Amino acid sequence: MSAVILLTAISIAQLLIAIAMAIASVRMFRGPRAQDRIIGLDTLYINAMLMLVTFGIGTGSTIYFDAALVIGMLGFVATVALAKFLMRGEVIE
Amino acid sequence: MIQPVSDLPLWAAIVVAVFLILGSALTLIGAIGFLRLPTFYERLHAPTLGTSWGVGGIMLASMIYFSVASSRPALHEILIGLFVTVTTPITFMLLARAALHRDRAENNGNVPEKHQHDLKDVEVVQGNPDEK
Amino acid sequence: MLPYPILAFCLLLMWLLLNGFSWGHLVLGTLVAIFASWALASLRPDKPKLRKWWLVPKLFAVVFVDILRSNMAVAALILKGKRRPHTSGFLLLPLEIRDSTALALMAIILTSTPGSAWLEYDSRDGTVLLHVLDLIDEEQWIATIKHRYEALLLEIFA
């Protein structure tokens, strides 16, 4: 009984997160400006991290936790670098 | 794919399921808002749904699941939650400053100007993109 | 020997959470924590002055409840979609706190409650430009932020 509840909940959660990832990538491709694309990327990697944690619950293995931590750290550094590039790299003035 | 532990007590399974669905539903609502809101500064609010209770709900579910399944406290998911909570303001602040900088440089007109030192205590600029 | 005891303790805790508790990891984690806090001491950051640390759990509780409430409010706003009037706007908030740790905590609080976003801080006149999703009464927003969070932060980092 509890296994049925858990499996159903995990499948629903994975479906919802997958839709959220699809929406984030739509915003990433549509733009309209560079900052929207960067926030889209940021949302995409946070959702990927959540997806990995739900995989971890589904399989009962803790190895996914480490992958999620690595995605979180690399994604943070990437977003900061991109934001810094927007701020300084583009000469508009 | 390994099947999840089936001897989990019923209450734990229900609690884990509720937190999982709450977290992923809030993440999805945040993404929908991210797609539908009209201006960049409004869109900035939507992903924080995913980074506050989206992450929080799923981490709580994972913590409860692994603590009950291995019958000893498994608290390391709290590190991801803390990490996301601390880093989100940094990324959003940097992105918002970059966006403000670009909008000011291009005179987009719907962002408040910088360094007005004759300000009153409180000034509100209605951010309506349709006005100009 | 320990220039930053709280930081060293948090590092040890993190080490034990990541590796699981065993006596060997306790020793290794203590060594890592001590060397890491020496490394930080050579950078000479400002040491935060935590006066009333017993108020920190109260701040966390207030923020936790507010995050939950504003999550629900913003989710309702998004689901209502285009039928709602356009009420978002910028808000210039004057702050009294100057301590950098308190400002960092304030930024975390305001960003992680959905519905308000910290855009930029001007250290010369101590004002913050916020963007608020549901800006109906700006005076009330400022009063809420000042009363709920800033007063507590001012007390903690006196």
Question: What this model shows, in words?
Answer:
The complex is a heterotrimer of chains A (93), B (132) and C (158). Chain A has helices spanning 2-30, 34-59, 63-88. Chain A has 93 residues and is an all-alpha fold. Chain A has a single domain (2-88), classed as Helix Hairpins (Orthogonal Bundle), CATH 1.10.287. The longest helix of chain A has 29 residues, at 2-30. Chain A is elongated, with a radius of gyration of 17 Å. Chain A starts with a helix and ends in a 5-residue tail after the last helix. Chain B has 132 residues and is mainly alpha-helical. Chain B has one domain (11-105). Chain B has helices at 10-36, 40-43, 47-69, 77-105, and one strand spanning 124-126. The longest helix of chain B has 29 residues, at 77-105. Chain B is elongated and about 65 Å long. Chain B starts with 9 loop residues before the first helix and ends in a 6-residue tail after the last strand. Mean pLDDT of chain B is 77; it is low at 117-132. Chain C has a three-stranded antiparallel beta sheet with strand order 1-3-2, covered by helices on one side. Chain C has two domains: 5-41, no CATH class; 53-156, no CATH class. Chain C is elongated and about 60 Å long. Chain C is 58% helix and 12% strand. With 158 residues, chain C is of the alpha+beta class. In chain C, strand 2 (116-122) and strand 3 (127-132) form a beta hairpin. Chain C is built from five helices and three strands; from the N terminus they run αααβαββα. Chains in contact: A-B, B-C. The B-C interface holds B 26, 29-30, 32-33, 36-37, 39, 41-42, 44-46, 48-49, 51-53, 75-76, 78-79, 85-86, 88-89, 92-93, 96-97, 100, 111-112, 114-115, 117, 119, 121-128 and C 14, 17-18, 67-68, 71, 74-75, 77-79, 81-82, 86, 88-94, 107-108, 110-120, 122, 125, 127, 129, 131, 133, 135, 138-139, 142.
SSE diagram, text form:
The complex is a heterotrimer of chains A (93), B (132) and C (158).
Chain A: H1 2-30, H2 34-59, H3 63-88
Helix pairs in contact in A: 1-2, 2-3
Chain B: H1 10-36, H2 40-43, H3 47-69, H4 77-105, E1 124-126
Helix pairs in contact in B: 1-3, 3-4
Chain C: H1 5-19, H2 23-41, H3 56-80, E1 89-94, H4 100-112, E2 116-122, E3 127-132, H5 138-156
Antiparallel strand pairs in C: 1-3, 2-3
Helix pairs in contact in C: 1-2, 3-5, 4-5
